[in-house]
Write a structure and sequence with these properties.
two-stranded antiparallel ribbon, 2 strands
């Protein structure tokens, strides 16, 4: 009981809530976010240590969303009544509807536990580039990065598919596209350029 009391006093948890909050704000303004309970180091130091991995994950997720979302949305917009167009849109609706945490658990269960293809946690091997550890430069890093990046990209991917499909459907009705087709341009040129 005395250890608990000492920890409560050391952490300032014995003070009123508004005093604790003001103390936190004062520390945050000066760059002191407190200490990590688990690692025993300043929280800001821990945040900066994990920042490269977080930025790397966000960038890879964004690139996945763009590289998959635009072509899939284009296909869905060009062939809206085909099986593939309807399938893409159904997948897009699922991407919006399913909670990200649940999809993450399903991905782990399928690809890590059942199939054993991908690791379920960690960052994998890294390569230091100007003092910044990057895992995108190693195969093991990609194995660790792919599943969380895909899960993070799912919502944005669904959004890009829907936006690209809508813009494609709208552009196909424009006069300049009809004129390009009337001039006899190849469909690939009409789609790719116009």
């Amino acid at each position: 009981e005395s250890e608990r009391l000492r920890a409560t006093i050391a952490l300032g948890l014995d003070k009123p809530l508004h005093v604790q909050f003001l103390s936190f704000l004062k520390g945050a303004v000066t760059g002191d976010l407190g200490r990590s309970f688990v690692f025993g180091i300043p929280a800001l130091e821990l945040i900066f240590a994990k920042l490269p991995a977080t930025i790397e994950l966000a960038v890879v997720a964004m690139l996945l969303a763009i590289l998959l979302g635009i072509p899939l949305g284009l296909i869905a917009g060009l062939k809206p009544d085909s099986v593939i167009g309807k399938s893409i849109m159904a997948g897009s609706i699922l991407g919006f509807s399913l909670p990200t945490f649940w999809v993450g658990l399903v991905l782990i269960m399928l690809f890590s536990v059942q199939l054993g293809w991908l690791p379920s946690n960690g960052r994998g091997d890294t390569v230091n580039v100007m003092g910044i550890p990057l895992s995108v430069l190693t195969l093991d890093g990609w194995a660790h990065l792919f599943m969380p990046a895909l899960n993070l990209a799912l919502f944005k991917l669904s959004l890009l598919i829907r936006l690209t499909r809508a813009q494609t459907r709208e552009a196909l009705l424009q006069d300049y596209v009809k004129f390009a087709r009337a001039k006899g341009l190849k469909p690939s040129r009409v789609i790719g350029v116009h």
